[in-house]
Amino acid sequence: MQFGLSEEQVLLQDNVNRFLSDNVPLERVRKYAEDGSDADVWQGLTELGIPALLIPEEHGGLGMTPMDAAIVAESIGYHVAPSPFLGSAIMAPVALSRSDNDYSELLGQIIEGKTRIGIAYGESVGNRNDAGVSFDNGKINGKSIFAFDSEANHYLVADKTKNLYLINADAEGLTRKELTTVDKTRKTVELVYQGVKAELVSSNSTVYDATLDIGRVMLAADTLGAAQNMIDQSVAYAMQREQFNRVIASFQAVKHMCAQMAADLEPCRSLIWFASHALAELPDESRVTACHTKAHLSEVGKSVSKTATEVHGGMGFTDLLGLHYWFKRIGANRQWLGAPELVREEAAKLEGLVA
């Protein structure tokens, strides 16, 4: 058995990396963080076919695998690229294509880049005192906090019973407020529903579980890419930064720090590959594996981001290098769709270790 990327997957990764390297330099990330739109970035990714990755061929998509999507997620994380990838290319297509309703037209609009679908899963993953979603007579009331994508045309909303609903971003009774979060490379919003017309996408918990699991694996892959970039920046900086007439890369302590980061992160790539494989081929293992993958990458990513900042010394905290964009991206990924403690508890329940 060959456990690695195929020639097609290497080509996919190279194409995405080339586009992001050319079109999403650090200055482009800064522009978005200050007050910008990611429409141009998403248009370029659309031309590469990224929104069509997981959409079945019968709906006009590419019908590719979670493994292919993870490769793209890693590249997006490496470049901290602003994009609606998680919602519009991953979670929403999975939910819509598995629904009993016919969403062929909407899926076609996603493929063409004409429609973006945000994700409002916060109230299904963790209950909050001042939030919650209720559905009655075709309408939604309540509040969702930390919904993905401030530029979305629609939102896929989940409630605590694992039902999924689709609402229009311009629907009457919906208030959308942009939130200030630690991660400036992706914009989140608070959605307040006051009798908002909603369509039931699925009341089947397995559809919800499938979207949540693949979302967690993609966030882990994003963290992998961001952490790898921080290691690469650390090594490059250590090779040119001098102290006592020597580059700091020659100091044993700095060598050990860089080596430890690489040693901690490298096994994570195999973990993500296996989790992606399990999503497609091992349904009995996919949920537990997705939980462990999300939790482990959250911890390793946190450690790498901290150590990489230390290698840069005082420069690591400045906006000049922009290292904080990767640092905060990793920190946000740690919390989105469940913090490590929460997903480990889920895994323990799935394995019958706790009641």
Provide a descriptive summary of the structure in words:
- By secondary structure, this protein is of the alpha+beta class.
- The protein folds into 3 domains: 105 residues, Butyryl-Coa Dehydrogenase, subunit A, domain 1 (Orthogonal Bundle); 88 residues, Butyryl-CoA Dehydrogenase, subunit A, domain 2 (Beta Barrel); 145 residues, Butyryl-CoA Dehydrogenase, subunit A, domain 3.
- Helices cover 55% and strands 15% of the residues.
- It is built from 12 helices and 10 strands.
- Strands 1-4-5-8 form a 4-stranded mixed beta sheet.
- Helix 1 runs parallel beside helix 4, helix 8 runs antiparallel to helix 9 and helix 8 packs parallel to helix 10.
- The model has no long low-confidence stretch (mean pLDDT 93).
